[in-house]
Amino acid sequence: MRVLLVDDSRLARAELRRLLEAFPDVEVAGEARDADEARAQIAAQRPDLLLLDIHMPGETGFELLATLEAAPPVVFTTAYDAHALRAFEVNALDYLLKPVQEARLGAALDKVRAQLPAPTPRPAPEPAPTAAPATPLTEQDQVFVKDGERCWFVRLAEVRLFEINGSYTQIYFDQHRPLIPRTLAQLEARLDPKTFFRANRQQIINLNFVAGVEPWFSHSLRLTLRGGGEVVEVSRQQSQRFRELLSL
Fold it and tell me: What is the pTM of this model?
């Protein structure tokens, strides 16, 4: 299930991301701070669910829905209970009051699952010839990167961040941000775990670029990377691994 988070509060979006980590079948497809960003993300990502705030700068969550020709299933997240009746009048599947509780979020996700079409069984593919495993890459290796008409030959030691961007992965090195048709799982399988660390479902970081570490929600960590100043929120589970990996 692919979920789009729509809330003008960055802290609220971060808390929803943290809560959703407890549900293995859920992937955060993107985030939006207002109705304009949400419309663009819905068109680009086609999520299975909107976790939608009501009170946002500009248009409200209700006004956003009124502009959509075909809206995905919606669960409202709000600090106010005064709009519950109207929420169900626009066919929302649920209405969660902030601070959102994991159990209530789980119940709302169950309602969404019941609405989604069952996956179509596919015939078992013919067994393919066994291929030799790809050679692991070290930080000293150079890799060829192509994005449109532009090409680079970059040393992995210069890459500070890999980040999911839609169905592609974005690579951060120097001031460049090319996209490649690879998943994080494919990259993680080839990268040296002593240098490259899976921070969360969306990002892999180069540990040599970590410039700052600070505590974050629920014993998780937030990292700042040198070179570009990117801020990476480490999931609760990976924060524990990060401490174990780098502690004396």
Answer: 0.49
